[in-house]
# Entry
Amino acid sequence: MAEVKNLLESTRLVTLTGMGGVGKTRLALRVAGQARAGFANGVVLVELGELRDASLLVNVVADAMGVRDRSARPLLKVLEDFLAPRNLLLVLDNCEQVLDAVAKLSEELLRTSPGLRMLMTSREPIGISGEVALPISPLAVPNTEQLWKRQPRSDAVTLFAERAAAVVPGFRVAEDNKLTIVRICQRLDGLPLAIELAAARLRAISPEEILQRLADRYALLTRGNKDAPTRQQTLRMCIDWSYDLCTPGEQQLWARLSIFAASFELNAAEAICGGAQLADDLLDTVASLIDKSILIREHAGPIARFRMLDTVRDYGREKAQATTEYPELRRRYRNWYEQLARDAEADWIGPRQLKWITRLVAEQPNLRQTLEFCVTDDFECGIRMAGALFQSWLARGLFSEGRHWIARLLACEAEPGDLDRAKALYAATVMAGVQGDLSAAAALVEEGRALAHRSTDPMVRAHIDLANGYLALYTGEIDMALMLFDNATHVYTERNDELFQVLGIGGLGLTHELNNDPERAIECYERGLAITEAHGETVYRSYTLWALAVAVWRHGDRTRADQLLRRALHVGRHINDLLNVSICLQALAWIAAEEQHHERAAVLSAAAEQLSLSVGSPTVFLPSLLECQKKCDREVRKVLSEKALAAAHRKGRGLGVAEAVAYALHEQAPAAFARGSGSSPAAPTKRELEVAELVAEGLTNREVAARLTISPRTAQGHVEHLLAKLGFSSRAQIAAWVMAATRHEDP
# Structure
């Protein structure tokens, strides 16, 4: 670890290389955890093991940094501008699946961001100038009994003991078993994954029996070959052994579960992988695979999720693809995730919206894989799914990704149903327009017009009118936009489609606003707000509150505008929507300037502008509001001296999201990483925060226990409580949370 840290001090790109299961990720996390104090803006961790589509790499990295692609500029440019002034360590884990894209992105980011350093893990070097590739060796193992006696500690033996204690409470390395354990670790070449799989066998057999079975398999590998097996063969041998020790039902479920791209819920496993033979005892079989360390149960929230390590999943996928049932498995997988997306859309205008967003975030790797399957297997399923996922893409600012999938699906030769195609065309038009790609939006609308002309379905025409209305809005054709939005909204109201009613009413209100008709704009916004509030919806409510606030302020009601913006800020903070927060801060700055609070206006404007950099969208994106911003700037500069103005801007730019919202709401600013406050029942305790910091350093539960002088079981309990409180599913997410929180702390 010291060698890696030293390399990061002298070079800007370090790649940890080695075969799967050798411990690259574990080492990278430990290095990142200990190095974060040396970077003013901390550390960002990006997990790439589940990414197969190289064209989405920039989106995934930007998403991990909180950078959104709502602007007209290319997302890579937004990301470069965000990173340019920052000093941080970017950790990209498991790069081998998208190696060329990682190389290209790394070169660009290192060129434009002088304060950036990068730490990669990959099975092979990235291959760009300036890279230092460091091959990672397996864990140290004593090679003789005498060495073991002289050196009582060994990383490999420590890992075996830790994993053994997790499956056999009270297990420890003692005089009567230490030589056996050393020989097991030797036989497994010190490979962490192989050691973990072997230790899991202690539920059923003794260390001596494990060693004997490993010796028998090792002999098979060397029969007829004088050379010792490679480490890759050793790992394969260990996974083969784990597979052979499974019952036929466990083997079948292992293979079927490998269809998942990442973690999954039990109900998904039952629907996709159950089948006639496994349906009755699937839960018991899942429990057995957990006991054998094939599956890992993630502790996060009320719904359990399960996952496999990449190497174990790849092995299972090989087995599944060799069977005749694999096409049917893919079909079940597609159908399940299509239905999940459609269920989310149907429930979007409701109190469970945020839970749906959280769930879809967790399922994103599976959703991406499903869309990839659809491109080749079932185009119509993909179009239906993309139309349903639009709400999630819109809420999370994933416009480039949404357009990517819809473009690929629309390019397929097959023809979907008119209504599904109309929804997809509408979604793509809105995303293209928001990003400023008006030529693409116009082409999509033209295709939609042809579709609407030959269709007799009023909903098809309504979706195309809605798309055309937004295009007219983007191009300044106000009268046309008013007519189209009005037509679409009328159909949605007749059909009682509340989701599209909200979308149509919002466009209509915005168009009236641009047409200098605040009274009708207010009427539309209040109508939309009534729908969202009646159903407990959140995302559209936050933007409607902002739009209504600006409209009533321009109509002369400053007090109500202030109240509405505060409500919008509360919602934006709750859902962590930085675009919503930034535009609300900017509107509050206008009100502050009007009330002669010029320093406050300057602080709020600077905070809003700083947040907008990570959003990738300006705080003022409507032409009619540009004059409001210019007037605010003029008033502030007229009153404040250059020194006072610069100080206010520094203060605003220095505020994190939570601090900026607290300042705007006249609240006490919270600490970004509230060490030990424990003021909320859901807040981590002081001890849990200490555990979180050690997890961020890459320490295992046993190492955390030793550092804090507590039992390993207590340390495990603290980690599980942290996962539940933070809504996370892995230790890597805890590490990323600590790193992100540290980035916002005052130096």
In short: The longest helix spans residues 326-346.
